[in-house]
Amino acid sequence: MTNLSLNNNEFLVLTRKQKRLLELEKRKKRRKKRIAKFFLLLILLFSCYISVAFLDLPYIKDLRNIYIETAMTTADHKWLATLFFPDKLIKKVMSSKVTNSKIISVTKINSSEQNSAPIKNDILRQGNLQVGDLDYAGNEIFINDIDQGILISKVKGKTFEGKVALIDDPSRVFIGFTDKKGKQGRYILDYLDMYDSILGINASGFNDPNGKGSGGSVVGLTYSNGESWGKYTKIYGVVAFDKNNRLVVGAIDDWDKYNIRDGAQFSPALIVNGEKIIKGSAGWGLQPRTIVGQREDGVVIFLIIDGRQPGHSLGATMEDCANVMLSYCAVTAGACDGGSSSIMTYDGNIITKCSSPSKVGRLLPNAFLVKRK
């Protein structure tokens, strides 16, 4: 009995050893599989990186270029491109950035339409429209203010959402300056109060080190009722209204020659003589946008695109914006500063979703405003 008991114990010990050995063997196999999967993943990631960064494959190239353009056209997130892509590639992609440095366009307003009493009394055809209806471009009406001659609609695309505003009379559109020029800008709601305006959007760019600029130092030249501020730069074109209330876009270095009364500098021009002159992202990436346009009957179009907000709106390309403006019959259109500055406010309320962390948007050096009636 004693020997049998000992043999059983030895058997049990042997069985435990075998189990441990088997378990160790399984662990080694699992470890080898994990290592193999890890290296396989590295190879796949490296292959993907090579394909994206160095090969001009259809579709992948377009996505890569938009990614680079989007990162490089921000104030403080350029590292999202420089960290992953070689300088040579970034320079090549950004060399395609369109600024329309030789284009000049002035809206040719159809005087017979503008002066026709039946049309001018309701030039936006607001009388038969209600909030929730579709406007003539097929977008849902958000605000229909007949008394103020303003129609605002929601716009949507594959990657963006925003608001478009139609203003009946171009003589009501003007630029307002901050009252702290050279020191600090104002929030968009402040501009409406300062200038007793019903509608406002951002206009010029400003010096913005690390995305923390105070909005007090305007980039380029800007006019407010003929008063000038800033210095003309060849880097940007203009988005301005002359004394005949015509929208002027493009490369204009002598503003007095064109009788500019109110305007700002930025780029690019999007629509000239009713034709789209921009294609794709044009070096500007996928961003929040601010666009100003005009129909041939004088009606002014403000477009604000929200962006940098996954789940709501990533942003739009310049061609996306041009297409929206064409759908509203713009014959002239140009871009203002975009990004976290893009914002629209109506009657004391912000009606777009600015990508700035602040609910009231950025401090701005100036703004395009619409006088109250």
From TrEMBL:
UniProt key word Disulfide bond: no
Assigned keywords, A-Z: Membrane, Transmembrane, Transmembrane helix
Transmembrane segments: 35-55
Annotated Pfam families: NAGPA
Residue stretches making up the Phosphodiester glycosidase domain: 197-370
InterPro entries the record matches: NAGPA (IPR018711)
UniProt protein name: Exopolysaccharide biosynthesis protein
Organism this protein belongs to: Caloramator quimbayensis
